[in-house]
């Protein structure tokens, strides 16, 4: 089993930057990829970005390209999401997900482990 704990959410002004972190514990050596999804109020959960744990290959939703950067630390147990120039539409609960599967996808159903989420609010 793997446990994921997100941190870094909060209230920020539009235009600011924000960094989210996801700490993985447990059988982290089994993980192939980690990802971030977000769920705005009243909407579905959408893919933001994914990264392979071993090689660090990153994948982004089209809506995330340019303002979001996903990374993982050298120990490969923490995943980060940097958001630049926050926009009101970035307000959501951000979830970290991880999978032992051999692909990094944009489908929530492909991810086995999920964190509880961290809320990001953006004031205009």
Task: Report on the architecture of this protein.
- By secondary structure, this protein is mainly β.
- The protein has no helices and eleven strands.
- It has strands at 2-7, 10-13, 18-26, 33-39, 46-52, 58-60, 68-72, 78-83, 92-99, 113-114, 118-123.
- The strands form two sheets. Strands 2, 4, 5, 6, 9, 10 and 11 form a seven-stranded mixed sheet that branches.
The count of DSSP E runs of length 2 or more, i.e. the number of strands, is 11
Helix content: under 10%
Output the helix-strand order: EEEEEEEEEEE
Total count of helical runs of at least 4 residues: 0
Rounded to the nearest angstrom, the distance between the terminal CA atoms is 40 Å
Radius of gyration: 13 Å
Q: Could you tell me the mean pLDDT?
A: 94
**Major sheet description:** 7 strands, mixed
Low-pLDDT regions:
none
The helix-and-strand class reads: mainly beta
Quick rundown:
This protein has 124 residues and is mainly β. The protein has strands spanning 2-7, 10-13, 18-26, 33-39, 46-52, 58-60, 68-72, 78-83, 92-99, 113-114, 118-123. The protein contains no helices and eleven strands.
What characteristics describe this protein?
four-stranded antiparallel sheet, mainly beta, seven-stranded mixed sheet, globular, single chain, 124 residues
SSE order and pairing:
Layout: E1 2-7, E2 10-13, E3 18-26, E4 33-39, E5 46-52, E6 58-60, E7 68-72, E8 78-83, E9 92-99, E10 113-114, E11 118-123
Parallel strand pairs: 2-11
Antiparallel strand pairs: 1-3, 3-8, 4-5, 4-9, 5-6, 7-8, 9-10, 9-11
């Amino acid at each position: 089993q793997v446990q994921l704990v997100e941190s870094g959410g909060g209230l920020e002004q539009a235009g600011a930057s924000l960094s989210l972190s996801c700490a993985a514990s447990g059988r982290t050596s089994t993980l192939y990829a980690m990802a971030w999804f977000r769920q705005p109020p009243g909407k579905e959960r959408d893919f933001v970005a994914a990264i392979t744990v071993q090689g660090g290959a990153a994948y982004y939703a089209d809506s995330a390209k340019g303002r979001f950067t996903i990374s993982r630390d050298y120990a490969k147990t923490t995943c980060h999401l940097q958001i630049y120039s926050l926009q009101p539409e970035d307000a959501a609960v951000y979830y970290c997900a991880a999978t032992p599967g051999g692909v990094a996808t944009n489908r929530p159903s492909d991810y086995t482990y999920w964190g509880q989420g961290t809320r990001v609010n953006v004031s205009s």
